[in-house]
Design brief:
The protein is an all-alpha fold. It contains three helices and no strands.
């Protein structure tokens, strides 16, 4: 999210998060699971993926789109500025 601009942040964030989640799932199923029980860490990762992508879309709505093009729900959730340290 830091490396891209707000115009394309939502697309890249969704692509990277889903790719990483898919890679972890494939690794867990085909590499580490030899027919035995293994810890399933993909549930919390799915929640993190949802949170990261929703944050990216809310930043995009607040900073890259015009106010009149947003729905009332998007206006409430839009993030208008980001503090960078």
């Amino acid at each position: 999210m830091i490396l891209t601009g707000v115009e394309h942040m939502h697309k890249y964030c969704l692509l990277v998060a889903l790719s990483y989640l898919s890679l972890c799932q494939i690794t867990r199923v085909y590499v580490f699971d030899y027919g035995m029980y293994s810890a399933d860490f993909t549930g919390p990762m799915m929640v993190i993926t949802q949170k990261i992508t929703s944050l990216a879309f809310e930043i995009h709505d607040g900073m890259a789109r015009k106010e009149e093009s947003l729905t009332p729900g998007q206006k409430i959730l839009a993030i208008r500025f980001v503090c960078r340290l």
